[in-house]
Design brief:
239 residues; alpha/beta; Rossmann fold; 6-stranded parallel beta sheet; 9 strands; binds 2'-O-acetyl adenosine-5-diphosphoribose
C-alpha cells in the first residue's frame, strides 16, 4: 500500500494566528527556552512554566484550523493509501480540521501529565502549579509537553512509518530540532520521495528532492489536490 508520511511544524498553524518559535518576533525571541521548555526551568519556577503553557493553550483554543489543516484531513480521507500525520505542534488544529490518529511527538496542550505516576488526563484550560493528579493525588501535574532533553513521543512508530513511506513531506518546520529534522534523511535513505512545503528553505532544505515555497494554506492545498488527481504511485516508482 502506498504510504504518505507528513511531518508538520509551527508554520502550518501560523495562518491560524498561532505564533511560531523562530520568527524574529516568535516565541523564542520573547522567552528563554531554558526557562520554559526544560525540566530544569520547571523545577526552578513552575508557575512561570505553567503560565506560559496556559497562554499557549488559550491561544490555541481561540484559533481555528486553516485550509492547510483541512487539506491534510481531506487527503487522509480520500487518498487511496495510508496518510500518517506526525506533528511537532502542541495545538489540536489537525484534529479540529478533521484529521485522525495524529502523532503528537512533542506532546499536547490539552493533556496533563503526573510527574509522580505518569498518568495523563485532559488538561484544564488554566493549570496551576502543584495541581493534584486525579489518579495518585500527588501534587505533581505538569503540562504534557516534551521539553528539551526529553524523549519525543512515538519515536519507534515514527521510524517504522518512515521506513515504509512512498512520500515524505515536511510542512512549516524550520529543521532546527532533532530528531524531527533528521526524518528527511531517514525517509530518503529508505527510498521515499521527499518534499518540503515551507515559506522558505529550511535548515535541512538541501536534503529534499522537491520544494514548494509559499504559505501553507496555498501550497499544501495545491499539493493535496495534485496528489488526489494522480493515480497512486507504487513505492518504487520514485526511486
Ligand atoms: P519554527 O518556528 O522553528 O519554524 C517554523 C517554520 O515555518 C519556519 O521555517 C517558517 O519559515 C515556516 N513558516 C512560517 N509561516 C509559514 C506559513 N504560513 N506557511 C508555511 N510555512 C511557514 O517551528 P518548528 O520547526 O515547528 O519544540 O519548531 C520545532 C520545535 O522547536 C517545536 O516543536 C518546539 C520548538 O522549540 C519544543 O518546544 C519541544
Amino acid at each position: 500500500m502506498s504510504k504518505i508520511v507528513i511531518l508538520t511544524g509551527a508554520g502550518i498553524s501560523a495562518e491560524s494566528g498561532i505564533e511560531t518559535f523562530r520568527a524574529e518576533d516568535g516565541l523564542w525571541a520573547q522567552h528563554r527556552v531554558e526557562d520554559v521548555a526544560t525540566s530544569e526551568g520547571f523545577a526552578r519556577d513552575p508557575a512561570m512554566v505553567v503560565n506560559f503553557y496556559n497562554a499557549r493553550r488559550k491561544q490555541a483554543a481561540n484559533a481555528t484550523p486553516n485550509a492547510a489543516h483541512k487539506a491534510l484531513a481531506k487527503l487522509q480521507q480520500l487518498y487511496a493509501g495510508q496518510v500518517v500525520i506526525i506533528t511537532q505542534n502542541v495545538d489540536d488544529l489537525h484534529e479540529r480540521g478533521g484529521s485522525r490518529d495524529v502523532l503528537h511527538m512533542h506532546g499536547a496542550l490539552n493533556s496533563a501529565l503526573c510527574v509522580a505516576c505518569e498518568h495523563r488526563w485532559p488538561a484544564a484550560m488554566t493549570m496551576a502549579p502543584g495541581d493534584a493528579c486525579p489518579k495518585c493525588s500527588a501534587p505533581a501535574a505538569r503540562p504534557d509537553i516534551v521539553w528539551f532533553g526529553e524523549m519525543p513521543y512515538d519515536i519507534d512508530a515514527i521510524f517504522d512509518h518512515l521506513a515504509q513511506a512512498s512520500i515524505f513531506a515536511a510542512i512549516g518546520t524550520s529543521g532546527n530540532v532533532y530528531p524531527a529534522a533528521g526524518f528527511v534523511a531517514e525517509a530518503h535513505r529508505t527510498g521515499a520521495h521527499t518534499v518540503e512545503l515551507n515559506l522558505e528553505r529550511s535548515a535541512v532544505g538541501g536534503q529534499f528532492a522537491e520544494h514548494r515555497t509559499g504559505p501553507a494554506t496555498r501550497v499544501v492545498s495545491e499539493w493535496v489536490e495534485e496528489l488526489l488527481a494522480k493515480p497512486v504511485q507504487p513505492r518504487d516508482s520514485f526511486k
